[in-house]
Amino acid sequence: MRMRAAVLEQFGAPLAVQEIDLADPKKGEVLVRLVACGVCHTDMYTASGADPSGYAPAVLGHEGAGVVEAVGQDVKDVKVGDHVVTLFSPQCRECVHCLSPRTNLCMAIREQQNKGYLPDGTARLSRGGDPIRHFMGTSTFAEYTVMPEIALAKVSPEAPLDRACLFACGLSTGLGAAMYTAKVEAGSTCVVFGAGMVGLGAVAGARLQGAERIICVDLSDDRLELAKGQGATDTWVSSEDIVQRILDETGGYGADYTFEATGLVHVMRQAVESARMGWGLCTVAGVAGKGETLDIVPRYLITGRRVAGSSFGGVKGRDQVPQLVQRYLDGDIDVDPFVSHKLTLDDVNRGFELMHAQDGIRSVIDF
Ligand SMILES: NC(=O)c1ccc[n+]([C@@H]2O[C@H](COP(=O)([O-])OP(=O)(O)OC[C@H]3O[C@@H](n4cnc5c(N)ncnc54)[C@H](O)[C@@H]3O)[C@@H](O)[C@H]2O)c1
Ligand SMILES: [Zn+2]
Ligand SMILES: [Zn+2]
Known about the structure:
Bound molecules: nicotinamide-adenine-dinucleotide, zinc ion
Helix content: 25-40%
Largest sheet: 7 strands, mixed
Strand content: 25-35%
Order of helices and strands: EEEHEEEHEEEEEHHEHEHEHEHEHEHEHE
Number of helices: 11
């Protein structure tokens, strides 16, 4: 079929919206009609050329939600008409990692996905007979996409898809960091560094877990205002002595749980150093620049602090994204304030500009 898609032709240049071809779903694959898609940092990072593993031409986009239009052979868990959220982090339910409750890092299709292909090593996207590669296994800056069944979460049809799409990446990453990676205990004190989509999600996740005190730290007053709406009890503009301030306000010990959601290694260090002596857990969700390292004085670890990394919030996508969407429908998560701009696919590059200017939390493309 023919469809419109935003193609990364050349790093550093705007995406080019154009008609390209999409082949039918093969065995285990599903054709999804996109209804909404958020614009995330990883799309912009890849488009800029800063990501050394990036490739072109490719169709970007990974924060998608839509409706199943057709299914390939042997597809069991979704049917035509189902509402789905796309998963760059799939869940095959069979690999050694899927069978462990300790991680969400499914191994089933990783290798081909990283190269830009569907699990059988080929692309469904093409132009004039030449293949165009898939991005993050999702390629949702397009009217349609073909994805493996194991990379789709079936969600309640009651959830508006322009809200549900945020659960495809940023929001689930933040919620999950608090709920599934850190497993915040009720009554605890949490500090969240960064009040973007991921940090605000972590604030909400800490609240859902029953945290008593949730301190959110950012540089922007506007963003800290949003953090209040998600349940932050304290909102602080960061400063050079932020670690000391956190220690001073927690009896000199530090917080039970800290979260880093900025992607800045010096903030990761602050998050480690403001975790509580004895049992403080620092969860790192931000993606640092290529080659950067996190500097930790070992004494912080030997005196009982722990550090955990969190990819997609530790969320096992097919099982847990539907549960998170249900909590939104139940009124437990306020998603509306995150959708700051609505765009058309033709305006996708404007989404990057808005993100660069830190204007709003998320731009969502309506198809
Ligand atoms: N682990 C994952 O699976 C995953 C998924 C999505 C995004 N991410 C990463 O998470 C990070 C956050 O993503 P986002 O969409 O929320 O980004 P964002 O840019 O919207 O938010 C980052 C926030 O950090 C704040 N900030 C900057 N310097 C700070 C400082 N010194 N102290 C405190 N706050 C500071 C900014 O003001 C901003 O509000 C990025 O690195 C992104 O790549 C990770
Ligand atoms: Zn993302
Ligand atoms: Zn798996």
